[in-house]
Each structure stands twice: as structure tokens, then as C-alpha cells.
Give the backbone structure.
Amino acid sequence: MNFKKISIKAFGRYVPPRVLTNDELGEMVDTDDEWIYSHTGIRKRHISTGENTSDLCTKAARQALQHAGVAPEDVDIIIVTTSTPDYALPSTACLVQSGLGARKAFAFDISAACAGFIYALSVAEKMLRSPHYRNALVISGDVLSKIVDWSDRKTCVIFGDGSGAVLLSAAESYTDESFLISEDIHSNGDKAMSLFCGYKGVSNPFCAYEPGEGDKFINMDGRAIFDFVTRQIPISVNAALEKAKLGLNDIKLVVPHQANARIVEVVAKRMSCGMDKFALNIERYGNTSAASMPIAICELLETGRISLGSGDKYVLTGFGSGLTWGSLVIAM
Ligand code: UT7
């Protein structure tokens, strides 16, 4: 036996209370509910009115710990995935550690944009194979509203703020069993500029770079990403299933990154399966980046469509800036 049984203990989520509807957006930019819903499947999203990413992540993590009945002092590892850290440094994970009072834990961030939850689950699971760690918190959260250009109708209608967390635990006994059955994870830095925020220019006493107005905001070639992910995600899901020696029929539900309902429809069609195989809640939250998967899972737990400890199998699949993408086959 090489490692202890690693399982999913509990999930948590948090979204800020302020809801922004498509009709309200129609008063801000040249758009309307009909266009937004028909092109994305989104009706509304939650927007921060002051809480930053660490606040959202701390609340989601606290809920996961409460659901699991695990004290913050018993957490060994905290991984936050975010594209909108509170600060360039320290990491958002260290702020969450402080907010939780998880004194024993070590904490760090992972940058993999909307695929962050996929990347971090994989990393945390590998760390829990070590005999030294018992409990790991993986938290994805973003306040995308602070990097969205609110005058650009192509991006401001898509994103929402939110966070989701999961607590993973290693058991006492060695059984070599893990919730993570297989994974298929990729990056393609050649396509980095199809979705970016910020600027590469260096400014110091020896050279001057003046950021432009647009440099502060998300720049996205939405069509290019749409085409890329609708090709790659079916390949990735099938690769993960093949490694798990499972077929789609063995899977209860695919939980995709909630980027655009139309992307999920194309993926479902390319995989020759019905939309009922895919979890979708983008209508109420918009695209909350990597948090979208754990937020969706929390809702599925609340409605009984997912049951923790059941052993039922699910596929998580995500994609985002980097470009990054990947799929996990997991057992609940
Ligand atoms: O999560 C991270 C990864 N990101 C993604 O997954 C994004 C993937 N891409 C998408 O979801 C879609 O490409 C978008 C939702 C971003 C855009 O939908 P689209 O169907 O690809 O529209 P488009 O960009 O091709 O634009 C079509 C037309 C354009 O007008 P013209 O040039 O044809 O006259 C746009 O100006 O739609 C116009 N348009 C809008 N019209 C009304 C774009 N945004 C809007 C809007 N309201 N909000």
C-alpha cells in the first residue's frame, strides 16, 4: 500500500448578494436580454460591492469546513486558484489561511484561470498521497468584475463573481484508493493572447512603459476560444474516460466549466449525448471562472443530484486563459 484513501469530504460556496440582470446591463451598454441569453444562456450574475477575492474564498472555505465538521486548525494545505488576487503578493491563499485561522496549514495560489479548479484538484490529490498531510482545501474564487471593461459589451455581459471550495481528506488506513480516478490536463501557451488581462511592459527607472486604458481589463477573442474548446473538450473528456476505462454511460453527470451554455451544447453534440448529461447553472451566475464547477456541484448536492459518499462517478471539465484545459474523472 502506497497511500491512504483520499476522498472528497465537503463542498462550500459563496456569491456576493448583489444580482446584476441582463436588463440592467442593457442600460449600461448596447445589449439586451435576448442577445445575452441566446448567445450565452446567462440571465443574471452576482457582482461584488466591495468584497475581494480572499473574502469570497474564505466564506466558501469556511462553509466546506463546517459541512465536513473539520476545524480550521486541522487543515494542512490551502490552495487558492484565482485570476483576480487581492494583491500581487502575498498570495490570496495566505489571506484565506488567516481569515480561517488555519494556523497549521501552508498556503499558496495556482494560476490556471478558468481551469484552476481542475489543476488544483490534481495537485492537492498528489500532495495528499504523502504520509505527512491529512486535509487539503482547494478553493477557486474570483472578483472578475474588477478586471472587466464595463463599457465593452463583448465581455461585460459574460462574467460574474463567486467562489467555491472543496475539502479533501486522507484517511488513516492505507488502501491506495482515491476520489480521482483519472485526469487529462493540458496547456497551450502559444494561444496565451486569446484571453489576457494586464500588460507585459516593464516600467522602472531604466525604461518607461505607459499602460494604456485597455491594459487594465480582460481582452478576449471569444470566437477563437469558442472554436478551440468545442474541439478540445470532447477529446479531453474522452481521454480521461479512456484512462479510467469507463464510458459516458458509467458517468452520472459531466460538470463543465460554466463559460457559455452554447459551448456545452456543441460539446454535447460532438460527444453524441444529450444535454441531460451535463450540469448547467450559468443562467443564474454567468461565468465565474474556476469557481463555476464547485458552485455547480454545491447546487447539485443541495438538490440531491449528487450524493457525497455514493461512489458515483462524474467528469469535471474546464478550460480558460493560458490556454489551459483538462478533465477529471472523479468518484463522489
Ligand atoms: O471562461 C473563459 C473562456 N472564455 C470563453 O469560453 C468565451 C468563449 N466565447 C464565447 O462564449 C462567445 O464567443 C461570446 C459569448 C463571447 C460571443 O458570442 P459570439 O456568438 O461568438 O459573438 P461574436 O463575438 O462573434 O459577435 C457577433 C456579433 C458582433 O456584431 P457584428 O460585428 O456581427 O455586427 C458583436 O459586436 O454580436 C455582437 N455582440 C453583441 N451584441 C449585443 C457581441 N457582444 C454583444 C452583446 N450584445 N453583449
Summary: The mean pLDDT is 96. Residues 31, 35-36, 39-40, 114, 153-154, 157-158, 195, 222-223, 225-226, 259-260, 263, 287, 320 surround oxa(dethia)-CoA (CB under 6 Å).
